[in-house]
Amino acid sequence: MIETTNITFSPERLAEVQTLLKRYPEGKQKSAILPILHLAQKDFGWISVEVMDYVAELLDIQHIEVYEVATFYTMFHLKPVGKNVLEVCRTGPCMLVGSDNIVKYLEQKLSIQDGETTPDGLFTIKTVECLGACGYGPMMQVGEKYHEFLSEERIDQLLEGFRQNATQP
Ligand code: FES
């Protein structure tokens, strides 16, 4: 039974959840936790405790089981984020080619620190673990797009592009 009332998927989303659950054998519904958390983040913007509790109720598993997964993977946002989440890979291969400098440059350009959001809500800087583009570092993911071989010049271009997109109707 769903105990949480403030957070609810739409009927269409619930149908999608049911389809996901059918992929797994009876009693193994916990295996659908990652795709369902992705849907939750898409719909609710970030993964609050309330969202985690809702997902646990949907899957009929312990709340702690959802907390463990949602807090382990850096792809889940555990607090509200800006319109553009600049997810910079901080794992070894990217670090060897200067990802820490990219993070510092972003922090300086946006006057925020890793994990923070600009006051206009346009950007969040978030360092994350390997995104599987290790040969193309330093790299970052923004939305569904990868940006690779980053340099200060490339960051300037990207930020300008994101700002322009934000002003378009
Ligand atoms: S180490 Fe950065 S993408 Fe793998």
UniProtKB/TrEMBL annotation:
[2Fe-2S] cluster binds at C89, C94, C130, C134. Its EC number is 1.6.5.11. The keyword Metal-binding applies. Keywords: 2Fe-2S, Iron, Iron-sulfur, Metal-binding, Oxidoreductase. This is NADH-quinone oxidoreductase, E subunit. Its cofactor is [2Fe-2S] cluster. It comes from the Bacteria. Gene3D superfamilies: Glutaredoxin (3.40.30.10), NADH-quinone oxidoreductase subunit E (1.10.10.1590). GO terms for molecular function: 2 iron, 2 sulfur cluster binding; metal ion binding; NADH dehydrogenase activity. Binds 1 [2Fe-2S] cluster. Transmembrane segments: none annotated. Pfam families: 2Fe-2S_thioredx (PF01257). Belongs to the complex I 24 kDa subunit family.
